[in-house]
Amino acid sequence: MTLWQSIFTLCSVSFACSGLICGCSSDAELSLQRHETTGATLAACFEQELATVRSQLRDHEEWERTLLADKSDLQVRLAAAEGERDNLKVRAYPTESILASQRTVILDRNNPFQHFDVRKECGFDDSFDMEQFLVRASEIVRRQPDLQGLPSGSSRAVLSMLLVSEIFEFGRELPYDADPGCISDSIRELKGANYQVRFEDYQRARFGCCVDFSILLVELLKHQNISGEIRVSSGHAFVETTLRESGGLLLDASACLAVRGLDTRSTEQLEIYRFPTKDHSRKVAHQFRIVLGLMFELEALRAHDLARVSYHDFCQQYGIQLGGT
Predict the structure, then answer these.
(1) Which one, 26, 115, 153, 193, has the greatest CB density within 10 A?
(2) How many domains does the chain have?
(3) Do 182 and 281 belong together in one domain?
(4) In this structure, are residues 230 and 218 in contact, taking their beta carbons and an 8 Å threshold?
(5) Do residue 76 and residue 190 come from a single domain?
(6) Phi/psi at 189 (5° precision)
(7) Secondary structure tally for the chain: helices H, strands E
(8) Looking at the domain assignment, is residue 17 inside a domain?
(9) d(CA 273, CA 110)
(10) Is the pTM of this model over 0.85?
(11) What is the 3-state secondary structure (H, E, C) of 240-284?
């Protein structure tokens, strides 16, 4: 072999080896690049999945907190309901005994003003003065047919009580506040302790207490020549009217109740006439309390324990000066 042939052969082998090396290098780089691309894609997918799981976890934790709060609230309400149930059970037993021994009768009667806009029909929200209101209210009472199932001669007095009962709601304006809110107290919080409450203050008021119901009822009865006196017992005010045919009748406009028989010392039945009312939330609950109170304190509420209060003194005590007082 000549020198030139040897050189040519050596060059050919070198060229082939370099090509092989270059080919191997390119394959390795391509494989590495492919691996890097796949890893980046997977990382992005995992990050997205992680974000989704974290979001779901936050939602679940929020839902769990809501459930725990609801559970706590329900437990409080359940405890209150159980306490009220136990209290009613305790009160029910002696009530049943009283009903059996005293022969108390609770009579449900119809209320013609239950679905009646009394304030509008009486012009109570208009610019009427006290006398104009009494004329209109007396006329509305006169137009009503006599109520059935009441003591003889008591229909007009009871109708007057039912009309007055629908003028105010019983209690305060704040929701869930069952305590009575006298109009005189509310007005004097704004106008001072010495302010004399007028009829226009009553016209603006939507909520009243037993004082307000009783004063307005006495005024309406007097306008119809029906006697009406204030009677007070256990922090509650009623109106008593003495009727020629049936004797004394206790009228509670705060709770739509008429009671007969409190002034008798004999074994005559105590009769409680209960009327439906628009203000179911408060007046019906008040009816329940008054009826139970009457049955629990039958002897205590007889004539010698029901305080008689002069109407003039009663109005003066509460600083109320309506048209007829």
Answers:
(1) 153
(2) 2
(3) yes
(4) yes
(5) no
(6) -65, -30
(7) 9, 9
(8) no
(9) 10
(10) no
(11) EEEECCCEEEEEECCCCEEEECCCCCCCCCCEEEECCCCCHHHHH
